């Protein structure tokens, strides 16, 4: 374990600034004295784009590559054309740093209630592929803006890309008590991509006899998220289905304010990036209303990725305790961050 | 209104047979004496495929085209390779008969409870595009089965195809009391297709000043389906997003056993096709356990499409009354069908 943690910080847009500040506060509080936290903030996002027209210059991409990890707040702003920042910055980072494991745990915390009646037990992890599928930007449009326009989006899937994320998911399932892995796709319609995912899944499954496997079409999976979320342990799925399912997972576990994520390159060739699942929420930005818990939990994922398991667990326990103590009275972003920082040091 | 209703019936696989029988029973009961119901059953689905290797021969497709409408049960069976029947039969019909409006109403019926705490009011309609998007079968795979495999799926979107379904959705929204239409897509990532959908939506919106419009990314839409389903009135979306969202809609309104759908060709050039949203449920097939209500409600959509509005409303009232009277004691498929048939004649 290295003596310094050299962190790149991209607060980004909207509530990104506010939640990242609290994430850093808790990180600083939980780190053992002998680990020195060094941070460098990168001014990327809507303001930068308005000022310079840049989303992510190559020089900054190269600098980002030198850090141990990246903490990101949120990207996207209504004043910037849709897709410019998402694709030019967020997706560019995921693709450039080959973040093929987009890890999104979902948990209904004890003593909290979600929107589902009966308060089912929910504790699963979605392993979303992060570098392929419909997210590659492949496609285009012809005769744009005319009545004869044709627009395409191409989902690209490779054995190389599918196998590495499927292997990662099997290893994660093997390490959990229930040892269950569900593949989600739409093999009955998307037969080409679906065939590749299914055959790869079945091949790797043979190496993990202790892992129980299961397949669901994406439409059926959304039903089970609502009616039987307790049936899931680890889920592996493609980039777009993973995007949809993890927002739904956040909703059934009591809100996008708690959903953490890691964009992970398990090889270590590039830094991994940790961010809340929620967006920049421009409607509540700057008002101290955002819940920083998702960012704080993303910091826990970051610590675990870097081998600081004890500290990661301390954060998760602090969040559990804080949620259990919530009595419904409103707290500011800063107050929640301070409460969590106090708990991790207690 | 014609004196005969000439209906093609495709019971299909699994519970399809059972639920279609009850749908026909209710249809026969509700039709006024002067309308003669003529049905012709088509033996299509898993058994036919096992017997002859055929999914839908051209001759039968031509015969189907001559009917006033089609009632379909469910397609798909675990003994047939995934996709063969779905693509060779169900999707073939949707594409051949140009069913560009896939209409899927969602309603939480009075006196029933869904899985969401607080029992929110839910009454919306999803207008799912039915002939384009990722469903065209475009794509392929190279070096299949090798470590160098590449598999693609191409989403095809045309101004022609998008505009006609968007127009249909605006007309439906205009005719409803709340007059609200939400476009769901993923414009920030799928910029080519998303751009076409958004610009078409905005263009048609200018012709409907009384309709309030709204846009949501598909991931955010799933959150609102669970946390604020009452915010939706009419939703228009692409083929794949519509597939996912309508299963989720069925889940939050108390189950796939109630979700009806119409595959509609509003031009009348080909017969429209009505089917429950649920699948063939092989696990409960042949046991009399399936709820035929979704099929019966699909019959109501069929009647409304053919101009029999009074009879459609009678069925919907019968379903409402039957649901309100349910006391949780189990009833067979046949018992539910008989109860609904009795109510529509009462
Ligand atoms: C902002 C957007 C590009 C992003 C995605 O679609 O991946 C977000 O929804 C997410 O889930 O991280
Ligand atoms: C069976 C399958 C091809 C179909 C679809 O994906 O459209 C079904 O899920 C539906 O929603 O009608």
From TrEMBL, chains A, B:
Q: Please list the residues that bind NAD(+).
A: 279-291
Gene3D superfamilies in the record:
Isopropylmalate Dehydrogenase
Q: Where is the Isopropylmalate dehydrogenase-like domain?
A: 6-340
Quote the cofactor binding remark.
Binds 1 Mg(2+) or Mn(2+) ion per subunit.
Catalyses which reaction(s): (2R,3S)-3-isopropylmalate + NAD(+) = 4-methyl-2-oxopentanoate + CO2 + NADH
Q: Does the keyword Lipid biosynthesis apply?
A: no
Which residues does the annotation say bind substrate? 94, 104, 128, 219
Looking up PROSITE patterns in the UniProt record yields: IDH_IMDH (PS00470)
Q: Which InterPro entries match?
A: ICDH/IPMDH, IsoCit/isopropylmalate_DH_CS, IsoPropMal-DH-like_dom, LeuB_actb
Alphabetized Pfam families for the sequence? Iso_dh
Localization in the cell: Cytoplasm
Family named by the database record: Belongs to the isocitrate and isopropylmalate dehydrogenases family. LeuB type 2 subfamily.
Q: What is this protein called?
A: 3-isopropylmalate dehydrogenase
| Encoding gene per record | leuB
């Amino acid at each position: 374990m290295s003596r310094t943690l050299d962190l790149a910080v991209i607060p980004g847009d909207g509530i990104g600034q506010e939640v990242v500040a609290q994430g850093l506060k808790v990180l600083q509080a939980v780190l053992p004295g002998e680990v020195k936290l060094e941070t460098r903030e990168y001014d990327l996002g809507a303001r930068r784009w308005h000022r310079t027209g840049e989303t992510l210059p190559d020089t900054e991409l190269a600098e980002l590559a030198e850090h141990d990890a990246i903490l990101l707040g949120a990207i996207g702003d209504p004043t910037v054309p849709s897709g410019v920042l998402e694709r030019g910055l967020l997706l560019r980072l995921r693709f450039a740093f080959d973040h093929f494991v987009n890890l999104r745990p979902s948990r209904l915390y004890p003593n909290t209630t979600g929107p589902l009646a009966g308060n089912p037990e929910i504790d699963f992890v979605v392993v979303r592929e992060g570098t392929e599928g419909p997210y590659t930007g492949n496609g285009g449009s012809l005769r744009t803006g005319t009545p004869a326009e044709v627009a395409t989006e191409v989902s690209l899937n490779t054995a190389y890309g599918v196998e590495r994320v499927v292997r990662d998911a099997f290893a994660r399932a093997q390490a959990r008590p229930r040892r269950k892995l569900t593949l989600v796709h739409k093999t009955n319609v998307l037969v080409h991509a679906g065939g590749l995912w299914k055959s790869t899944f079945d091949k790797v499954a043979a190496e993990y006899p202790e892992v129980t496997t299961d397949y669901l079409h994406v439409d059926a999976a959304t039903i089970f998220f609502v009616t039987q979320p307790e049936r899931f342990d680890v889920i592996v799925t493609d980039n777009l289905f993973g995007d949809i399912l993890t927002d739904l997972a956040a909703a059934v576990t009591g809100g996008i304010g708690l959903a953490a994520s890691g964009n992970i390159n398990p090889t270590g060739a590039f830094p991994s990036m940790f961010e809340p699942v929620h967006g920049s929420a421009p409607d509540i930005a700057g008002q101290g209303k955002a819940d920083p818990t998702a960012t704080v939990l993303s910091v826990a994922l970051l610590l675990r990725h870097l081998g600081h398991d004890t500290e990661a667990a301390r954060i998760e326990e602090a969040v559990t305790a804080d949620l259990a103590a919530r009595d419904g009275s409103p707290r500011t972003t800063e107050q929640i961050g301070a409460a969590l920082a106090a708990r991790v040091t207690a």
